Amino acid sequence: MLATYTKGENTMADLTAVNQGSTALRPIKVSLLETLRMIRQSYRQPLEHAQDMQQRYGNAVMQRIGRQSYVNLYGADAHRLALVNEGQIFSNKKAWDMIIGRVFPNGLMLRDGDDHRYHRRLMQAGFKNPVLQGYLADMGPQVHAAVEAWEFKPGGSLLAYPLFKRMTLDMAATIFLGMELGGDAHKISRAFEATVAASMPRVPLAIPGTILWRGIRARHYMCRYFQQQIKRKREGQGNDMFSLLCRATDEEGNQYTDEEVVDHMIFLMMAAHDTTTSALTSMTYALAQHTEWQDQLRKEALAIGKDALSYHDLERMPQTEWVMKEALRMYPPLSSLPKYSLKSFDFEGSTIPAGAMVVTYPIHTHYMEQYWSNPTRFDPERFSDERAEQKTHAYCWVPFSGGAHMCIGLHFAIMQIKLVMFEMLRRYRWTVPDTYRMPVQQSPISKPRDGLPIYLDALPPRAIPARS
Ligand code: HEM
Predict the structure, then answer these.
(1) Does the keyword S-adenosyl-L-methionine apply (predicted)?
(2) Complex ipTM, two decimals?
């Protein structure tokens, strides 16, 4: 069976006959040297790489590396096709297993079809509104204390990225795992960092001393630690995410097994931490460059007139949300989204075979002039209700993906980002030199190569209401 996707009316249908107008997509012919250059560029400069490929070869490009076919699809229509996944053409499991399956097996993103639906339904227990409100109440004092403790000389600089990384790791320990900071939490954080480092190793060999080997050992440590906690978590009343997943039950009374809880927790910590760190970093950079926006957001934060944010106060930060969306447009933490074709399918006149790694590029779509006015410009107002450029196409803004695998932690991430910004804006003013450009390493998850040095000034205390 061949599935067909037709551009224009955005309709998709399962067809049993081959589309007459369509031709089989063939691998592009390039030298080995050029292939290596392309692979390097795709890691180092995914935006330039995608723009270059799309201009040279069009919206569907196939490359063969060894026995594996890789197909790049460009544009918002490609995202719609891959993310809506009508007719179950694509497997998330097969794609992500090939990339992070050794250290994050059986995570929610590495599941398909009914199995995925079942696991996702149970996981909702950790993401419902009242639960998020509880997380926010717990995170507030922690973020406040962390931001207050930043050490720097007046007018001196700080590396923003490691600070955010520390903060999100600490929050993973307390909010996700219900741990006290220090002691075991520190050990778990270190093991977790080794696991993440091993998720996309340059040397994919698990022999003593390699990053992959260290990552697998660290994963075993975490598995043992979590296993020991499960009985207590199942019987207790805790409201941390670990406890909630241990007790989650569906309508038929099904629960996660112990192994499933462990796999989900390790995956969740990974999914939550580097992505949010990346988003906070790019927002901080954008606000350091565009201090007029920083002043504007500071006014918004101060106008709330409170020292601690409640869940409902989050709605009173619409401009902070525009800036976050704009930062995620310009620097999506995941610049590409891989899927694996289980069936052959048509895309804009090309037939793509089963068994291909099919990759779409949020970072490329986020800069297409077809959807965005002046896309290289930092312009948060494009997300205002009046302009709403993200609605030009339902799949032109996809930092959180879409369809069945759309990020389940989206609201958690927005809440956490607003909370950190709320604390930073009221306490500090930060800048970067006019000539500074953040050197971005886009892959696997967008981050600054230099840690993002920012120059910080503490605001006069009158701008900071006393904490009750
Ligand atoms: C700015 C922050 C974040 C970004 C940009 C982001 C981005 C993404 C993307 C692109 C995917 C889908 C990948 C695919 O289509 O295969 C995804 C999935 C997922 N994310 Fe996030 N994420 C963020 C924060 C979080 C947080 C805070 C959590 C948990 C608290 C989380 C948990 C997950 C999970 C469990 C999945 C798998 C969903 C599924 O397969 O059903 N993410 N995220």
Answers:
(1) no
(2) 0.99
